[in-house]
């Protein structure tokens, strides 16, 4: 009888185990109405297609930011096929996907904001499931489809997914970013599938060939169905007679996708089932210089000696590392003519010839069969003429209102004549072509890691919790800080400051208040590219630093919104911001006053004006700065990238505890640039990471590079600018040379060479093990390949592991 009871018990346990397993697997096959899934769950995968080819769930685009996406499970890089919220990633802490009781599938951010929903409210929606073809659908109890992702593609079309009058593909804004870009694939008003460039100043269709009529392009406008589809064999067919095929046409077992890439090229990809890699099996533009807007305005694209973008002579990049913004004139040549005066325009302007170059479109007053002087006079007589193209032999004159879509060696060939004022022409003729950026083969045929290493900028609100959550955080914060104080020797007074500062007195000051506090900005503490800093004393006798911000063009409301969130960021190694002023043209920040000034004054002091930093102080500074950056990179959203880590922005309090200043200023000082992408070069020579010059998305790894340079300066005891050899070496090369030498020396067992490298003012009084560890970290931080650099959180762990 006992044995029988054991058998029944065992059978019951087995049954419950099987039931639990089945339910767990069932969760992957559908999402039921009334259920909810959080970004904080152990797995970010919510649904898997029955055949296992596709998965759906929270896709990580930054350290703490996610999109709700569908991706290829068998791709080695989890290539994304569809995204619901590409322009509004959600916070990784507290955001949820909810199948609401009203029938809508909704993506809700941590603060309750609905960033995306399906249009199935007040329907009989029963559950959501992912089909074998990658289509996410919401169905009722009778399996009737109420909503499907196939009807709202992002940048990718899957086999059997229809292209219609109501659908379009929009490119990503840049490699590795999910945000909407400048190119669109859609049915135009003539019923033809077209590619259009939607630039900052203009838009133009560039495919099919705009020079040719529809039948010359093999298309027809006489169709009303507006329908296109990619079949499983690799053939694309459309109602306008567009037809193209994959190079591996006929293989139904190959997984495919048609993607409008960030560079404006439409490419058909095939997946290698063995290694999970993608290959291009068909593309719209083998010659990518034909793509409009590829290099932006006032620039041209060339293939020799390699594919590259270049600014015209007399121009410079508008936004370094972002060619979509094009180039701008170094000198303003727009001089309005007085039409009532008899001035001689030929004496005021000069034309510079650019041979065998053309800019497509934006001609005005086209004139055939004229001489070159006549064409020149046409441009001189028009204030809006930037340049003119002249086709010799035929005498064709093309005055240009805008210089865009430039390319070298066009067919047929002509010359471009740029218009400059004679005032600036002497400087122009002495200058050299500027800002040449090579586009590698990888750019022409980009890899499929479309979401790799994203450093996207996201909304400031993401990293804050609600007021209710802060009450819980209070308890956790105090507990953790108390424990940390015992373990790491932090100063006990910080324990009491934590929560008080989080809910503190961040407020708006009037300009008169700050004039009074600073005695009309009398005592300047320092100045930099972002503005000058003045010492002040508030009415409550608090000492503050008041920074006048330069070049802020944001409205008061946007400025206030962004600053109010920065003001609530708290960490013992970040300078605390107390408030701000925004009155007309006055934009100021009010922050805590840090007694011992900036680290650069100590490092640059070779006259004995400041006490020499002892090794323990240097090590503590290295650790404190690492903790502050780790907080910005990992405990907040990743886009909080400082972009200007250097000794001038590391302040030392009365106990020489470091505090990082000027974090968040990149956002506040951006000149109306795309908020999703760091494009304008920020930082200081010697500390700028190589990716700024390589047109790569900027992530926290850019700060890691700058931190590595600061570490080298801390150990060496002098500034990076003093490392240059013979005055001719670039400061970036000096950093690389120093790192290469250290790599070789750190590999030795004998550490006696440290006496020669470590600051001689220490007289050999330093911890050899710590010095070697700090230098190893520094060398790894300044790696040119950012993937090889450590994260700031791992740097903190290493430094803490060897604290005496």
UniProtKB/TrEMBL annotation:
The entry's keywords: ATP-binding, Disulfide bond, EGF-like domain, Glycoprotein, Kinase, Membrane, Nucleotide-binding, Receptor, Serine/threonine-protein kinase, Signal, Transferase, Transmembrane, Transmembrane helix
Reaction catalysis annotation: L-threonyl-[protein] + ATP = O-phospho-L-threonyl-[protein] + ADP + H(+); L-seryl-[protein] + ATP = O-phospho-L-seryl-[protein] + ADP + H(+)
Domain of life from the UniProt record: Eukaryota
Enzyme's top EC category: transferase
Signal peptide: 1-24
Residues of the Bulb-type lectin domain: 22-151
BP GO annotations: recognition of pollen; response to other organism
GO molecular function, one term: protein serine/threonine kinase activity
Any one of the GO CC terms: membrane
Membrane topology per record: Single-pass type I membrane protein
CDD domains, sorted: B_lectin, PAN_AP_plant, STKc_IRAK
Residues engaged in binding ATP: 548
Domain Protein kinase: 519-804
EC number: 2.7.11.1
Domain Apple: 345-421
Location of this chain's protein in the cell: Membrane
PANTHER family: OS07G0415500 PROTEIN, RECEPTOR-LIKE SERINE_THREONINE-PROTEIN KINASE
Family, per entry: Belongs to the protein kinase superfamily. Ser/Thr protein kinase family.
Protein's name in the database: Receptor-like serine/threonine-protein kinase
Source organism: Oryza sativa subsp. indica
